[in-house]
Each structure stands twice: as structure tokens, then as C-alpha cells.
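Hi Q.,

Before the meeting this afternoon, I wanted you to have the 5'-O-(acetylsulfamoyl)adenosine prediction in hand. No need to reply - just skim if you have a minute. The sequence and ligand are here:
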Amino acid sequence: MSNYHIKHLEEYFQVYRKSVRNPEGFWEEIAEEHFLWRKKWDNVLSWNFSKPEVKWFENAKLNITENCIDRHLATRGDKTAILFEPNNPIEEAQHITYRELHQRVCKMANVLKGNGVKKGDRVCIYLPMIPELVVSLLACARIGAIHSVIFAGFSANAIASRINDSDCKIVLTSDGSFRGKKSIDLKGIVDVALDYCPGVKTVLVAKRTNAEIEMKAGRDKWLQPLLDNAYGDCVPEIMDAEDPLFILYTSGSTGKPKGMVHTCAGYMVYTAYTFKNIFQYKEDDVYWCTADIGWITGHSYIVYGPLANGATTVMFEGVPSYPDYGRFWEVVEKHKVTQFYTAPTAIRALAKENLEFVEKYDLSSLKVLGSVGEPINEEAWHWYNHNIGKNKNPIVDTWWQTETGGIMISPIPYVTPTTPTYATLPFIGIQPALMNESGEELIGNQVEGHLCIKFPWPSIARTIWGDHKRYRETYFLTYKDKYFTGDGALRDGVGYYRITGRVDDVIIVSGHNLGTAPIEDSINEHPAVAESAIVGFSHSVKGNALYGYVILKEVGESRDRDNLRREINQQITEHIGPIAKLDKIQFVSGLPKTRSGKIMRRILRKIASKDINNLGDISTLLNPEVVQEIIDNAL
Ligand code: 7RM
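Predicted structure with the ligand bound:
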């Protein structure tokens, strides 16, 4: 039996039990047999959740790029590592082999060194989804610099605050980016940001759009000539297991974004092991995760997890709607994609469009479908299963967070029987706990509470950059000696987990706790509804009442609005009960969403409460323009 590759349900249970009974022994074996170490650890794990402090593979020495690149050269040198699919399908895809990747990473590493970057320095990366992005992450890791990737859709404000928070001295960016029909002036945005970042001395600029941009003398340099002149080999920096690998910012419900810090060894071991199993990755597969590398999903499951396994990982520059809504499926057919990993928001958007966009393409190469980022509602799950998976590909609904580094609760495809909307079972080594309001753990099945994790796993974030106190307060103070996720979950009769959403999304109406997700699911089942979001607003009798924002499908546009409102409430009454009926229903053309597709309920809550003077920073939204429309038509 190989603990590295789980193939049957019994094996899962057996390995799971082993990983819980003896976590140190279990992870030691995985680490020992599947990775390259310059020096082994003295101690597998030391931890204390009340400090909090977690160390895995103490005093081990390694470089993650040796594991992700060098060790594959002998056997997979000519295999495609990165399969780059450009925004415009007319442009040819690029197959970057492991050997080429090695050379490009080494050159980039030497360019960084040549510009004064040393081990431990923070490097801000603000690049679109082009090969230079992956190459620059790995180049940082090669020389022990800490990368801080900022999603290339964030505003100048957001960039400046992140650069200053982690004190980056250098920025990697490009002349621009292509997104569907649009091209975006990334360099111009960086220029504005840097007016507020006196610490940044160097900006390296990749060419992508060939837009005319301003280069600030003494600060800005074109990347390509530097790469052309750089040496194609670079001795990897030997890193300590617990040296930081990267910082990635994630926004909380309050305050400024948190710079989550991930370290080298544990992160590598956990992302590699989860990738192998949760995507049932096999040697000749072509794996595609549609996330942007600006998010944790891209870090862990486009870059590090796949490359540590010597996989071919597709990197897509474009958007699902360009040149038309068939783009994803065209790419699946063209590259014979075997594993496809995306977000529910993308699935729902595509499900609204004509099925012809799907049916035109041959999707028979697909073996596993993944979902991540938010709870996947039943309707979207079935659409995905039926139309993309042809009812034969397992859907892995993977629950995890920026803070967890890797997937925590998920089916293992072809191993764990799936149930729509359930993330099913904890992954190997993960010990979840559901907690009640009095801080007690709920034992047994058929329970619902706040989701915590009781025991460290290798890829848990070690701190918030520069603010260990906030790290402790946010994650370790709510429940003693447990990591608190901020999510609610239920465990059903067979022990399957269903994530019910952020616990701050619970609304108490007349003393009843109502989760937003089930009400939204109910509304979304109405044939005229495309998507919806519920928030609470204060009510003199009920404490809170419900306000629904509803996007209609085309078919709903022509219908009588008051009739629709009645039908929606009728449906909620049938599904959940009259207590969950909405007091107000506003029809909108869009919902304010974060760049990763999460609804910004904070804004909707304020509009529902007529508190529109202080909406906070909306510049990081995907669609800030819908906010004004919603305000103008508020009820
Ligand atoms: C990977 C990622 C984390 C939050 C998390 C949840 C929600 C993510 C699922 C999910 C239900 C899922 N990192 N979430 N995956 N909820 N089912 N499969 O998204 O840091 O950006 O967000 O996302 O609320 O706490 S993240």
C-alpha cells in the first residue's frame, strides 16, 4: 500500500486513521519518500495553538524549486511543465518543458540577484497570467526571496498598501494585460501606486501588450534584455524548512488585508500530497485550474502542487466569455484536459448561456471536475455534473482557505462517493471539529456548528506578516487550542461535511438563525432567477428582516415584478418556511463581487440599511459600477 496515492475508500479510512493516530510518523514517511532534502529534520512537529506556534520538519534544509523543477530534469526534461494558453485563441499556445522552465527560472533568479534581491527580501509581483508570472514566483523561491503576488486586477490603492505592509523594494510588472476584448494598463496602475511607496527602488517590466508606457529613469527597467543577458543556471539557496516562502494577502471582514505567511517545507509537502490525491493525478494527465495565480488556489494548485508532482499544468490568460462562452470547453478539447478545477461563480455564469457553447466541444478527455471558493449550490452542481461531466466524472468540492495553504475537506475522486453541495470528508491528516456557541465540541453526527481544526497540518499559515497578535486573535482565540476557520458547517448522518458559509453571514430573524445560503439556493431554483444574495436589515419587531437582491435570467426580464416577488416568497415558504420570507426584493443587474467571485455582503448590508455614506473601499471589486445602480434603485 502506498500512502502517497490513495485508490480505494477502505485505504482512505486506513490512511486517515494512521494520520490521526500518529501524525508525526505519518507526515515523516510522506516527506521522506517523496521529496528532495538537503538535510533531514531533527523533529517532525512542534506546536502550540495558544501561543500560537507551529513548526514542521524543524531544521530540515531544502529548496522548493529543486523539488518542483531540478529533480524532474532527468526523467521529464522534455515534458511540458507549463502549458500556456493565451487570451486570444488565434495566438499559439506555448509548451514550456521542465528543461526550459529550469532555464527561465534560473535566468530570472539571476536578474533578481543582479538587482540586489537577497534571501528574505520581499518581492512584489503584479503580473497578468503570462509565463513570467510563474517564472518569477519560482525565481524568488530559488534565491530565498519572499514573493508577494498581488492579483493584477487590484487597484493602485490596494497595491500600495500591500507593498508598504511587507516593505517590498522591488516590483515585477508588465506593460499591460489582455483580458478578453480589453487590454489593461498595468504599468500605469503601478506608477500611481508607487507614488505612495517610497521604499520601492526598482521596477522590472515584462512586455505583453506592447502598449506605449512611460519608463521612469533610474527606477524602471525592461525585463527581457536583462533575461537575455542572464546566465541560465543558478545554484538554489538552501532554505530552512520554516523560512517564509511567500506572503499572500487575504481580506478579512474588518480591517486591512492580512498578509498570510507560508513557509517552505510543510507547504510543499501538503500541496504536493493533496494535488496527487484530490485530482488523482497520473503521469500523462493535462491538469487545468482556471484560477488566477494572484489567489492561493493558483499558488498551490497551478504552481507548487502540480510542479512538485512533475505534472503538466495549464495556465490560461483569458476569461470564460472570450471570444465566446465556449472558451473553457474549447481549451479542454484542444489540450485534452483531464482535470478541470474552477469556481462556482464561473459555473453559474456559464450555465446561464446557451448549451450549444458546451455541446460544440469534445469533453471526453475529462476525468475529474473540481470546485472551489464558495459553497456550490445544488443547481450549479447538477449543471456541472450533467453537462460538463456527462454524469460520469466525479466532482470534487474542495473546501479550504488562503490560511490553510491546501485543500482541507474534499472527496477523493473515484474513492469517496460524492453528494451535491457536500465537501464530504476531511483529507488525510485533517482533524475538523464543529463547535457550539458555548465553545464545546459537538460530538457525533447530525450536528451543525462553527468549523475549527484541532491539530496542525503541514501547510497552515504560520503568522500574519508583521502582526502575530492579530493572527492569534483572528484564528486562535475564539475556541481554545483550536484553529477557527470563520465558516459554519454541518456533519450529516454518515459523517460528511457540508460547508454552510461564513458564520458572519448568519442572520437572526425573530430569534431564528437563518443562513443566507439555503435561502439563496431556494430563490435560485426559481426558473426566472440567475443569482441572488440575501442580507439582513434591522426591523423593529423581528430584530432583523431579510432583503434580497435578485438577478434575473433573460426569461425573467419581461415578467411582472410583483408577481415574481410573490412567487419567490412562495418558493422560500415551501423550501424553508415562512420565517425565511423576504421583506424586500430588489431586482439588480449584478452583485458586487470580490475578484475571486465572493459576494461582498458588507456593501449589500449597508445599502439595505440605507447607510450608504460609508461603504468602505469598493475599488477592489470586480464590478464597482453595479454599486451605484443598486443604490439608485434601493427599496
Ligand atoms: C481557496 C479559497 C476562503 C473561504 C472559506 C469559505 C469559502 C472556499 C469552499 C468554500 C464552501 C467550498 N481561499 N470556500 N471553498 N465554501 N465550499 N468548497 O477560496 O481564502 O479565498 O477563501 O472561501 O468561506 O473560508 S479564500
